Backbone:
């Protein structure tokens, strides 16, 4: 039997902690081989919960340590490019949290660094690995529901992040930080590219977000290359918890994810017009942890099978381009064309 793949985690914050726990418990064939964070206390506290792997104060030290085969990047987004360039130069395969970076130049530099080094670069769009979204995609790809014609997705967070995080120079702001998941789903579920957006936003509930140039809620209209349409709704203020729902209306039926708290997914129409098929929800597992674990397993399996990763840097750039256009429309008004891939 081959030895487990050593994963080095950089960034022991909110997301890094979840990734570490899932790699430690739910990714056969891999082990958490080290944790790096500039905050030594954060790295030590996290290590104590996940089998006490070695801790490092920098990515460079982590990469120089023995037993690190691949890295998982969960630092703040503004540091992703630096981490990707270091990992690529060290010849390590990379799973990087979304967004790849906060500018087109940095995103392209990240993709180029991985390509130059010949390492894998997977982007952390974990919804693509969630069973409910996978099922929705399979239903749509089967052709049984006809052609996808309208995409509708919403993501409401319980409360806004601290201003230091909401700051677009740190997180990218609401479109890049939150919206990017929906924009990636739009491309993936509709199997088409978004070419134009129009956004509105407000600081209705949290005017303090305006001080850093962000909003607490926004709607984005989408136009796809083949003429289909869509909307994305974002908010940071449900007060009742995380609420994430997606719907695709196709020419012969509809596919839903997260429609009701009692269901994981559902579909109507397709081969049995007039019926509604409901996928049961396993409430024992927090929302998206299945996806995060499957995402890490998919990354490890691609390395083990020596094949490309399923969600690429190019996917990261495409969703980022939609987010940038939406952010520009939010700021300057009007319809904004999505910058095509170079
Ligand atoms: N997939 C999702 O749904 C999802 C959700 C939340 C956050 N994220 C992404 O995860 C990433 C991290 O977000 P977070 O909320 O966990 O942030 P966080 O601030 O909680 O954690 C970031 C950690 O990175 C460390 N760090 C920063 N610079 C570093 C460096 N140069 N070297 C080593 N460590 C460094 C910080 O000390 C901190 O512990 C972001 O890219 C964010 O977009 C994804």
Residues:
């Amino acid at each position: 039997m081959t030895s487990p793949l050593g994963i080095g985690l950089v960034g022991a914050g909110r997301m890094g902690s979840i990734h570490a726990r899932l790699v430690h418990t739910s990714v056969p064939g891999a082990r958490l081989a080290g944790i790096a964070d500039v905050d030594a206390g954060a790295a030590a506290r996290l290590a104590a919960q996940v089998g006490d792997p070695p801790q490092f104060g920098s990515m460079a030290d982590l990469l120089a340590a023995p037993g690190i085969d691949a890295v998982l990047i969960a630092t703040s987004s503004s540091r992703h490019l630096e981490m990707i360039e270091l990992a690529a130069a060290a010849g390590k395969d990379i799973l990087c949290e979304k967004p790849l970076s906060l500018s087109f130049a940095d995103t392209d530099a990240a993709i180029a660094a991985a390509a130059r080094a010949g390492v894998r670069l997977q982007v952390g769009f974990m919804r693509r690995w969630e069973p409910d979204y996978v099922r929705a995609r399979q239903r749509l790809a089967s052709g049984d529901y006809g052609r996808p014609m309208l995409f509708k997705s919403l993501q409401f967070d319980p409360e806004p992040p601290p201003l230091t995080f909401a700051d677009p120079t740190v997180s990218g702001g609401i479109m890049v930080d939150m919206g990017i998941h929906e924009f990636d789903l739009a491309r993936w579920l509709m199997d088409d590219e978004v070419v134009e957006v129009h956004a509105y936003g407000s600081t209705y509930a949290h005017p303090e977000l305006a001080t850093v140039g962000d909003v607490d809620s926004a709607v984005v209209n989408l136009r796809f290359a083949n003429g289909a349409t869509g909307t994305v709704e974002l908010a940071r203020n449900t007060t009742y918890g995380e609420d994430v729902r997606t719907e695709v209306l196709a020419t012969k039926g509809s596919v839903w994810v997260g429609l009701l708290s009692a269901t994981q997914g559902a579909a109507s129409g397709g081969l049995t017009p007039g019926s509604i098929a409901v996928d049961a929800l396993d409430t024992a597992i927090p929302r998206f942890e299945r996806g995060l674990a499957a995402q890490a397993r998919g990354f490890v399996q691609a390395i083990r099978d020596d094949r490309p990763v399923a969600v690429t840097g190019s996917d990261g750039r495409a969703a980022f381009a939609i987010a940038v256009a939406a952010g520009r429309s939010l700021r300057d008004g009007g319809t904004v064309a999505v910058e095509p891939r170079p």
In short: The mean pLDDT is 93. The pocket of nicotinamide-adenine-dinucleotide is lined by residues 10-16, 36-39, 42, 58-59, 74-77, 79, 97-98, 124, 126, 177 (CB under 6 Å).
